[in-house]
Amino acid sequence: MMREWATVVAWQDGIATLHSEAKTSCNSCSARKGCGSHALNKLGPKNAHVMTIPSAEPLQPGQRIELGIRESSLLGSALLVYMTPLFGLFAVAGLFQMLFHSDLAAACGALLGGVGGFIIAKGVSSRYAGREAFQPVILSVALPPDALRVEDVS
Q: Would you list the DSSP string of 34-54?
């Protein structure tokens, strides 16, 4: 099970709104200037994710909770997102090359197949998004920020 900590932003009627920071290793790596991942991280959002998750237990803003998601569902999602466009790219490029015997046609087919693969991946992922195996679950709940636990060890 993959684990990640998140902070509660709000809780209302059994639904918790959570804020999670995405961690990257870009700050500790010395190859930042020539790294494609570092460049992509600078282009994207600022590594913050907001999500909603059902929680029967009342939560307070600022409280930390540990979320978990199955590795199999995470790997299946990654396989769908990366391999479907790649397969579409090669399949349609090969088909266009075979039909039209032109590199330009193959390049157009590759573009068409890649975009088509992204559209198919988006459609398939929206069907699986509601399944329980693809939803994060609450593993543990930390104390609220204003609570103090005192244990008598005598």
A: T-HHHHHHHHS--SEEEEEEE
